[in-house]
Amino acid sequence: MVIGLAGGFSVGSAFVALLIVLDLIPRLVQLTRAYRRSSLFESSILFGSLYWICADLFDWSYKLPAKALLLPAIFQGLFVGMFAAALTEVLNVIPIVSKRFKLKPYLFPLLIAMVLGKVTGSLVDWLLLHP
């Protein structure tokens, strides 16, 4: 119980830190020009997080045909991929690592290897481990 609670606190605080560091909500409000509805964005993130916490904790599941899940799965993959790329770009992880380990000449193959590894791991998980 203590380990689960500590893990929840660490993931939750990392999520909040990510929202704060990237100024996600103020930028979203600015892009949509919905200044008076900023509390709606905050509430949506809060209720979405609570819903998915409960869905995971209580093992909620809905039986839908695979074709109905194709479009949401594509958008979810795009969101996660772009979010990870944006986070990497903001934190400048790749340039720092390539400079520290003298990988400058191997930067493009390194990026391709990272992308192919992520895609391969996702496909193995989706198609073989959890079909």
From TrEMBL:
It comes from the Bacteria. Keywords: Membrane, Transmembrane, Transmembrane helix. Pfam families: SpoVAB. The keyword RNA-binding does not apply. The chain crosses the membrane at residues 6-25, 45-62, 74-94, 106-129. This is Stage V sporulation protein AB. It comes from Cohnella herbarum.
